[in-house]
Amino acid sequence: MHPDRPSSLDRATLLAFTGRLRASARSFDAPSASTAEARWLRAYLLAATGAFGRAERAARRVLEETRNRETEARAAVTLGSILRQTGRHGEARSIESAALRRTRTPELRAHLLIGLAADAVGLGDLAAVDRALRRAVAERYRGWRVTVRLRWVRCERELLAGRPAAAVRWARSALAASEKVGAQRHIAKSLLFLGAASRSVSLATGGTRGRRARLEAGRSLRRARSIASRIGARPIEHVAGDLLGSMGEHR
Fold first, then answer.
1. Is the pLDDT of residue 5 over 50?
2. Helix, strand, coil % over all residues of the chain, rounded to 5
3. What burial letters (b/e) apply to 39-58, b meaning 16+ CB within 10 Å?
4. Is CATH 1.25.40 what the domain over 147-251 is classified as, yes or no?
5. Do residues 76 and 96 make contact, with C-beta atoms less than 8 angstroms apart?
6. Are the beta carbons of 59 and 75 closer than 8 angstroms?
7. What are all long-range contacts of 238-245, with beta carbons under 8 Å and residues at least 24 apart?
8. pLDDT tier at 9 (50, 70, 90 boundaries)?
9. How far, in Å, CA of 97 to CA of 109, rounded?
């Protein structure tokens, strides 16, 4: 293979990470589709489009079968996300902790530590959130996906701490980083965080500030839902719709 020509799997991964989910699924060629890395990417795509049961089975299979520690770590990151989205934060923490002990790649360690911080948010353990975030930052890896995910969890951290205005700032920062690279799924998810954080500000604040926060929440959630619907990111679409419904906005 020519070193300057990306493989089918490389192209599929780039498409997936930038939110071109359907194009990514179509871009596999036969030789690459059966590798452990390809099976992990299929699990990622299934999770991103909301097929959590199939995604979980695929990610677990990769964890059981691969001997490559980087592929194992990627599968653990994906499985951790699936488990969090289905309410199993403690199980996600166990899987990500085990993978963290076995990988030395700074990027993957950062992703696993971000996952552990998100697990701690779900478990309501603010001290554990802060420990995991400090360790993630200490890895000194600053790729755009790590940057965006760090800001998502910092947003969640501030919501857990009862600081919705600070959460809004982190969500806006995540949105800016996502828009800089044109990553559609990350843009939609950042808008989801921004909508949720703005909604919290509106509930905690009266007067003009509260009304402005409610308007920002509605705009952000509608845009999140629209982008997610267009790219097939059903989990984001559904959560945005649920939050809009809780605000009495069904369109």
1. no
2. 80, 0, 20
3. bbbbbbbbbbbbbbeebbeb
4. yes
5. yes
6. yes
7. 238/50, 239/192, 240/188, 240/191, 240/192, 240/195, 243/192, 243/195, 243/196, 243/199, 243/217, 244/218
8. confident
9. 10
| CB contact at 8 A, 229 and 217 | no
Same fold, 35-141 and 147-251: yes
Domain residues of the chain, as ranges?
Answer: 35-141, 147-251
Q: Is the pTM of this model over 0.70?
A: yes
Tokens of 144: 């755009």
- The most distant pair of C-alpha atoms in the chain lies apart, rounded to whole Å, by 63
Q: How many residues are there in the chain?
A: 251
Domain 35-141 has CATH 3.40.50.620: no
- Residue 147, classified by CB atoms within 10 Å of its CB into exposed (0-12), middle (13-18) or buried (19+), is middle
pLDDT digits (tens, 9 = 90+) for 62-73: 999 999 999 999
Using the predicted structure, report yes or no on whether residue 225 has a pLDDT greater than 60: yes
Q: Give the mean model confidence (pLDDT) for residues 6-22.
A: 89
> Distance from first CA to last CA of the chain, Å, rounded?
50
